[in-house]
Amino acid sequence: MTGEIMPVCESVSILAKELEAALVDPTEPERKRLSALKKMPNYSSRKRLDLFDKAFTSAYLGGENEDAIGFKAIEILAELAFENMYVAFSKEDTLKTYKWSVEELSKLGVNVSKNLDMSEL
Asked: How far is the C-alpha of 21 from the C-alpha of 18, rounded, in Å?
């Protein structure tokens, strides 16, 4: 899939699937947030990213271990997912956030696709 032009939502979904495969025993809230990230293209195609936002944010529970690898990794991917949610699309900012996300995930020991095309919303 590297090098293909695809909407950012589709790329987030791919990254979420890769992240899910890399995580060992994610918690129920983490699984719910990953599910929302994986379904982001469906929300986008229905023009209902507001429902994506609700599904993702409603999956937080008090008392989660914010130092856990899974929690941190999902938060990093969420930065990319929410990059263009409520502002005009910026290819430059999206690419910067994507590269940052890949680097930060790598620091956590999670390797994801490094060459997805983020040139389209």
From this structure: 5
Q: How far apart are CA 12 and CA 77, in angstroms?
A: 7
pTM: 0.91
Q: Across-strand partners of 117?
A: 5
pLDDT over 90 at 85, yes or no: no
Phi, psi of 24 (to 5 degrees): -100, 120
| Contact (Cβ atoms closer than 8 angstroms) between residue 8 and residue 120 | yes
**Burial code of 51-67, b = ≥16 C-beta within 10 A, e = fewer?**
ebbebbeebeeeeeeee
**Three-state SS at 105:** helix
DSSP 3-state of 7: strand
DSSP 37: H
